[in-house]
Hints:
With about 110 residues, the chain is mainly alpha-helical.
Amino acid sequence: QDLAHHEPWYGDFDRSHADRLVEWETKKARERQNELCRKYLEDCAEYHTHIDIGDPARKIIDFISRYNIDMVVMCRKGESGEFNMGGTAQRVTEYSPVPVVITPSP
């Protein structure tokens, strides 16, 4: 979701502040993604990574179609940890045009 289009906050930000926040979050996400890939995927023949902003399930489904992905592998537990399978994993499993493999969280 575009942070610059939220209701005005106390002290209100101009667009450049929101853009810098998104850049910082994206940088941190990429660092974490690279760390996890090095740790868990180093023996994989091929894998693709991608960072995007928005509804995670919708972005994953769009990515599958856009890049002709053959299979999706994702963890079963979301941020809340309250359910056997997180909401994003449930939605991707339901709407994916390709097989989805759900794994335990590392």
